[in-house]
Design goal:
This protein is 39% helix and 19% strand. The chain is of the alpha/beta class and 283 residues long. The strands form two sheets. The chain has a six-stranded mixed sheet, with helices on both faces. The chain is globular, with a radius of gyration of 19 Å. Bound molecules: 2'-monophosphoadenosine-5'-diphosphate.
Amino acid sequence: MFASIPASPRCFVIGHPIAHSRSSMIHGGWIAEHGLAGSYDRIDVTPADLPDFLARFRAGAFAGGNVTVPHKQAVLPLLDHVGEAARAIGAVNMLWREEDRLCGDNTDAVGFLGHLDACVGGWDARAATALVIGAGGAARAVCHGLKARGLARIVVVNRSPARAQELAAAFGAPLAAQAWKHLPALVGEADLIVNTTSLGMTGQPQLDLDLARLRPGTIVDDIVYVPLKTALLIEAERRGGVPVDGLGMLLHQAVPGFARWFGLTPSVTPALRARLEADILGH
Ligand code: ATR
């Protein structure tokens, strides 16, 4: 699929800290499943060390890799080519090398959509209005994906209203920002609700969302995956909503990178998901 795949690609995920990253479980699982030569390692790179790391990458030490906090924005101006999704989202999570050119893109929107497609086939033909809660990097990826699928209306609500307005203005129609106080009514208008904040994650406060007006069949997607089933998803399901968890997005966002580095499109299998679930439950 892509030109010049090395015989034994060396790949990485860089971040600081990096010990928590589950990307090596995903890519390591695919390397083993397909009996491939190559590696995928977690590498702790501080912000000060980022230019040196990229110089080694450019010189041929690696085929590609993932980028996580705090480098997702910092890496942007250091690349020779930035894909359209990464430019729109304003962050890079996947890198590859073309000879001595460093390239990057963002696969979070693809991951978000891939998991939604796998869980609720044909959802985009039925969904007209999406409600996106949050306005950070994750919200930008979700909005990029939803806009690409042609939803008629995408309403962004954020604790800090200026950030929601900024996001809506940057992406343009069909995005619009609304105030937090309108959430109970917006819940009743939405066909798809996405929590892109970290609220509801273990150790964080709950997302206090009034679901009284939720219509049965509304998809409720929480990008939080620790715990696997958040209080939001449990309450949505109790009210007849269709819950979609965040672990699938993590798994699906890894697919395009692996395909590029190893020349083989991997599958998000139940067995891989089960291994990630066991790891999450064990912590
Ligand atoms: P990410 O890149 O993971 O999206 P981020 O850019 O830090 O992370 O964005 C975090 C999002 O969670 C923001 O929308 C943030 O709202 P603010 O813009 O008002 O900060 C939201 N968030 C975090 N803690 C929150 C809280 N206690 N209540 C409501 N929203 C919260």
